[in-house]
Pirin-like protein (Pandoraea anhela), 308 residues
Amino acid sequence: MADPTPRHPRPTRRPAAHADASAMPRVLPVSRPGRCAAAAGAGVFDQVEHTDPFLSLDVFRRQGACIPPHPHAGCVVATYLFADATAALRCRHAHGGDDLLHPGDLLWLETNCGTVHEEAPESASASVRGVRLIVNRAGRHSHGAPSQTVVPADAMPRWREGDVALTLVCGRWGDRETAHGDREGTDQGARTTLLQLDWHADALRTLEIPCDGRRWVALIAQGEAAVAGHAMRAEGGGAEALSLPPGVWQLAGRNGARLMLAGGEPLGEPVVYRGNFAARDEGDLVALTRRYQQGAMGVLGPVCEQHG
């Protein structure tokens, strides 16, 4: 049964992001989510002034146990499984969504005015790894039922540039595009991008970050790489992150390195993010919390109990 009180306290208010973002890369502090014993990994949390429109970005690992039902509102939850994950992930929400996310797939969950959801590995003995993005929709969630869409791995553009393989998980990169179920057409949400770079040998290359209004964050998910002169390493379930302004930057990766690049158009607005609820202000947050406590976000019995 879900905890009646939203979890993960956050500072109460975020300032709007500044339009004149730094022209130099910035190292972003990385922490572990500590949300559940079944989850491990690390990412960027509570730094929306540098990551707007992303409320958080993290590399996760699940071993067996499911994450129990919990609420989300006012945001998008985008979950991407690495193709080398050893099992699928069942993703359900209280308004009828029930999909099996296979390795290499992306789940795009528009929570809108709120829903309870749950994720559970298909096998209790399997390890599931991937990346999660929480995208801000505060103030844009008052209408529309929650919905989720699976983008299959074979719908994602893949190409090679020398010894580096690239996968466009969602969004746009150059003249390539992947649909991800966003119902906002060409608006802000449709430009949310996740690009994966995999090194198949030690290699040096350049990366051009477009000057198109989007903000970009690089997150090392595996191995070692140097980005714009900053060494990045992922070991022991950890990760390191870097904000990348527009420009041409040098990348140097070791064989086996994996780098995730997330981009989105900043909202540039204050946001309250607490208990997995993204709101415009404290009054909006109170209304969302009341909706959840009154059951308006639905109820979901844990899948682990169904299989128990």
In short: The helical segments are 48-51, 282-293, 303-306. Residues 26-181+188-294 form a domain with the Jelly Rolls fold (CATH 2.60.120.10). Confidence is low (pLDDT under 50) at residues 1-20, 183-189.
